[in-house]
């Protein structure tokens, strides 16, 4: 078995002790944009590595 690290998809979200709900996270522009960007990079990385369209 092998794996690939997709660096741009590795992010840190400061949730410990924050008591934020999913709605709070979505409402926080910086946090939600960071998550969206990481998901976009992850998706592109998986597509590149595995040729998934």
Can you offer a commentary on this structure?
The chain is built from 2 helices and no strands. The chain has 53 residues and is mainly α. The protein is elongated.
Low confidence ranges: none
Strand content: under 5%
Q: What integer is the average pLDDT?
A: 88
Helix and strand succession?
A: HH
Overall body shape:
elongated
Structurally, the number of domains stands at 1
Q: Rg from C-alpha positions?
A: 14 Å
Terminal CA distance reads: 23 Å
Q: Care to count the β-strands?
A: 0
Query: By helix and strand content, what is the structural category?
Result: mainly alpha
What summary fits the major beta sheet? Answer: none
Helical content band: 40-55%
Total of helices = 2
Quick overview:
With 53 residues, the protein is mainly alpha-helical. It has one domain (7-50).
Task: Summarize the helices and strands and which ones pair or pack.
Elements (H helix, E strand, L loop, with lengths): L21 H6 L1 H22 L3
Task: List its salient traits.
single chain; 53 residues; mainly alpha; 2 helices; 53% helix; elongated
